[in-house]
Amino acid sequence: xxxxxxxxxxxxxxxxxxxxxxxxxxxxxxxxxxxxxxxxxxxxxxxxxxxxxxxxxxxxxxxxxxxxxxxxxxxxxxxxxxxxxxxxxxxxxxxxxxxxxxxxxxxxxxxxxxxxxxxxxxxxxxxxxxxxxxxxxxxxxxxxxxxxxxxxxxxxxxxxxxxxxxxxxxxxxxxxxxxxxxxxxxxxxxxxxxxxxxxxxxxxxxxxxxxxxxxxxxxxxxxxxxxxxxxxxxxxxxxxxxxxx
Length: 245
What we know:
alpha/beta
């Protein structure tokens, strides 16, 4: 995928969902993975062409794993002229050594997001951009359905009332395979997390992959059902009190 093609998807998401307004100060959550680096790169390109003027910065939470080297991220941000912020933490120690979590992803995510929100609020940012993509949308839908018994996924734009920050996800129309192709020349960092590859989300990813071997269009169709709610045909809620009358 070329930058021009990626930019067209980002522009579509931002325009349709009104993600960015004039004067916004946007912090991009950058983990060093392919998704967040692709998001940062595309938003920097979008900044040049958008009718809305907005500020942009990269913010990374250092989880505290040994041997973490953020030099490639720092150098890349300097190259594309984006301010880089590094937040130190001891999240890895708390999750794996102190708490010894069997399912560490939930606690890690909450702690990381809490640090991010507090930091960017303190620095005057009003929006946080995250690199969730189309595959994440579909996986979240099925995780919710299979494990919680409800039809739900994350919103493209959501206001976090406690932090008073708006969360945006400009990559919602882009599939992971295209991001992997685009990011092949970016300084992608290896994920140091001890739980990498063994999560429920990874399991769901494999399930979807197997479904698509039998039905190649399955993932595209699930995404279509998500972004076009007029196609929904679910049961109406029954008001028992009303029926008793």
